Amino acid sequence: MRKPRATPVLLLTLALLGCVVWAVEQGREGGRPTQFGVKDGSVPEDPRDTRRGQEEGYPTWPVNKELPNDTFTFARIRYNSMSHGGRGWGRGNRKWSTDYPDSDMNMSYRLQQLTSLQVNPNGAIVDIDPEQFRHFPFLYMIEVGDIDITDDEAKTMREYMLNGGFIMVDDFWGTREWDNFEVALKQIFPDRKLEEIPLEHEIFHMVFPIKVKPQIPHIRFAEYVINQGITYEFDKPGSEHVHYRGSDPWYFREFSEKYAYPLGINIIFYALTH
């Protein structure tokens, strides 16, 4: 019987869940990427490595000692961005690192807390490199409105998805950013067109049934508008923006518990089972 070809999946959301990437890590032969968990001047420090982070109780947890490599690792892509006429890493020059590492730790923590999935408490950062990509079935990107990829990087992303990999892309601010990212998408898949995922699609019902496509605001905006008596209409695809600490209990109950965590978990389980 002919083996069916894997279908590439590129999930676009509008404003983030600090998201994640996971890997079923192999033994030494299948090994970790050369720059697994790379740390250099462009990577913010893990707060758990600092006294302040330890005092504030950032989460960590043990993994199964008998199967230490059988874990799902939250991994985000470090990409190049064009900003203010220059080429570089991140907001301004480091947008790829927006909400890092808080959001990565937060989603990893909720996954191990709310599901039976064994989750690596230490996330990974990967460059657009085939040797690094191949270790992760799910990858996360954020703030891609100024993304600038080469033809070789576009090829790497295309082949990764054609081989069954899943990339979640998050956070767009306005038409200009979307238009720029659409150019990158055309580099990756010049013969494909974008289609909106209907609410009936199983990705919205994998673990938690989601009945609306939520547009989840940034916490500061949500706090402002609720004080002004403004309400929200969940009538278009949106995003999640989740904070581990310092969040208003109202925001957590209204957006994180109802929409952000369920949607994030659904997306991850869909990616790992399809």
Short description:
By secondary structure, the chain is an alpha/beta fold. The chain has helices spanning 51-55, 102-114, 130-133, 151-162, 174-188, 219-227, 249-273, and strands spanning 9-12, 75-78, 80-83, 86-91, 93-94, 124-127, 138-142, 166-170.
Give structural notes:
This protein has 274 residues and is α/β, with parallel strands linked by helices. The protein has a domain at 9-198. The chain is 30% helix and 12% strand. The protein has seven helices and eight strands; from the N terminus they run βαββββαβαβαβααα. Strands 1-8-7 form a three-stranded parallel beta sheet. It has a three-stranded antiparallel beta sheet with strand order 3-4-5, with no helix packed on it. Strands 2-6 form a two-stranded parallel sheet. Strand 7 (138-142), helix 4 (151-162) and strand 8 form a beta-alpha-beta unit. The two termini are 19 Å apart.
Which descriptors would you attach to this protein?
three-stranded parallel β-sheet, 274 residues, 8 strands, disordered N terminus, alpha/beta, single chain
Please count the helical segments. 7
Q: What's the arrangement of strands in the largest beta sheet?
A: 1-8-7
Helical proportion?
A: 25-40%
Order of helices and strands, N to C?
Answer: EHEEEEHEHEHEHHH
Tell me the major beta sheet. Answer: 3 strands, parallel
Average pLDDT score: 75
Strands, total number: 8
Overall outline:
globular
